[in-house]
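Continuing the series of single-chain predictions for the mutant panel. This is the parent chain; the variants come on the following pages.
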Amino acid sequence: MRPFLEIVVRLVPACMVVGASMELFMLNTGFYDVALRKEAERRVEQAREREELSRKMERTKRRQLE
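Parent structure:
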């Protein structure tokens, strides 16, 4: 069990450093700003599509009742 523990003790800090470096890079390059903008655009488009579908369904109901 000791060799496993030695590997973990060396590997975990290395992975943490790599992860922190990636986060720092993404913060400095504006990655999250771009991701946030794209997600907002997707949500607006989805809301428009839902609204359009809702209007179509309402028109269909009205026609069926006439």
